[in-house]
What does this fold into?
Amino acid sequence: MGKKQDVFINLLDFYSSSQLTKVFNENKGKLPFVYRDDAIVSRAELSLGVDVPEPASIVSLFAVGVLGTGSLLKRKQKKGNLGEDSK
It folds into this structure.
């Protein structure tokens, strides 16, 4: 009694995205919720979103791509120079 606790529920563990979309559309963007317990719910929150990679990981992937491309271009340039030297 008098104990506070956070509870997190991932709706996609129980319903498909199409089922959730159907409920949202049928209820004007609201998700009906029935709470059957004797606890007092002081706050409820629903967050919708997509996991987005951290900016640092995006930058590091870009840097690796740039370094790889630069290395490939240097290799091609060296091969081209070797062919010209043998003439």
